[in-house]
């Protein structure tokens, strides 16, 4: 019960519920005011304008938000006018539906916010079918008041933003901390659950994608706001928390351990990993608690559990050495020590977040210059040539637009031919269900139908119990608010609440509520079937055939990240910014690859060609990022020795191998320009450095010098980590080359 009450509190204090209240206020206020003034007839178009243009009001910079809503207002007015004027002319109306659907849906090439503007335009087309306007004066009056409604919503959005300026950012930071906490706990399970690693890795891909999406939105909000007036005290706090979440995420990525090596080193002695695993879980749970406190504004929890778990992890290293004995225990001890150092750094970042949340922090920590911050933003290209470049069957969104257009035209023609009541509900179902990939469309269609049935059942029960219009009115307001609050979090629940809202609104105007329930369910099922069948049969877009560009980008960014890490090793003071930008870009590229793989898993089994090969390619790219991050993280957090020529030689080899993989995907004959013998020699010399340090340490122990100096320990750690990670990276790059060669052959066979 306590957990449910806490979840309820988090929901009611969160930004999603706040957005639901905002939209409800924007919709109801004109109705109430105009009713009191005796101009009720003017309310519907204003309400429609407010409702239609709320979709593009998503977290991000104020400038982009305002521009998106203004474009949405113009688009919805124009489309509504076209439909109104062409209604009497069926052939032209059908042609207009096709052209509008295709062109408006293609706006999605400009990114997520543009796809929501597109959704508003398509929704306005469908709603126009539900309204009857005969004369030009009526049409222009309706369109004009729709524009007023859209501007009214923009004003409401601005006012609500001023009333609670922290809410959106706090919610995003809270969501990010929650996801990172879950990710850290998942990494703990990966350490010892060797039989479930493939399943856990797939869960990790999803979490990585979600974390990167949150980070991208936060970058836009934190780095584009307050350019002239500077950051407020609270802006500084939010930026500090954000920077810590990025650092924590990189540290977690940096410890994507070579699990085969861990299994080999510890074998049946996995008990020595339990302390590290427990520490990860404790830190993960603490991050989840902090995520909740960002919303609740309660007191911070005691940190004793964190320090206790860290101490236990440190003690385990000594216990392992005492039990296994040196020199046999050295490699295992270094793995545990590197793991401990990384967890200690994680704990420092968690402590930084705690200090920020309790207002005890040093403002000088925020040293990111404005011009530096802008370099971390992913800029969306809005030029016309973006659409022109997508006018090709090679474009997934182009094929989706064509498929979507066919589905919409067919749905409208079918509804008209069969004289189906409220044909526009079929189109509405297609709009909200159909997505570029089959898996998501199928999932949304299932959730939509189930949600509609649940909503209809609840509404029927209430209608049977009471015939009170006041109850209908109250429940329609509540269901509207909750529907908007939940639609992004839980689509099934959102669909149920929207159905409840529609039925109660209809019940206020018409006595026969059961008729609307019946038509609502039938039309939803018809729309869902059309959407799923169209996605499967009309120019289908299977992810197996769409991965090439995403994979190519990930390979290129991995190469850039490797070279940026090499430059960091040479001079970390001069090259930190370049390194961090390369890190951000590769995280996004691999996140996109992970997302593509998730879509692949949703495709029908018969369409998941070479699933294991693709899974291996995704895993190899992800592992390579982590291996490079391990080197980068160590360089940043330790005083390192001068870079050896062997290090540079092996980095060049890995870089060339990655380039060969890129060439294979692009159909270019790769050139092998490294001497295998020279690379083997460089590899042996790197390992020799570690072995010489180990031998010196063994000799000192034999002489009685059992206590190791911090400098010697760091040199041992550096030699072990650099040599092992580089050799591992070389092996990973070679596996990637073989995998991309095989994948390229499959693509060529598919074309032929």
From TrEMBL:
Keywords: Cell membrane, Membrane, Transmembrane, Transmembrane helix. It is a multi-pass membrane protein. The chain crosses the membrane at residues 32-54, 66-86, 92-109, 116-133, 139-160, 401-418, 452-485, 491-509, 521-539, 613-636. Residues 69-342 form the Integral membrane protein YccS N-terminal domain. This is FUSC family protein. It holds the Pfam family FUSC-like. InterPro entries: Memb_transporter_dom (IPR049453), YccS_N (IPR032692). Residues 412-533 form the Integral membrane bound transporter domain.
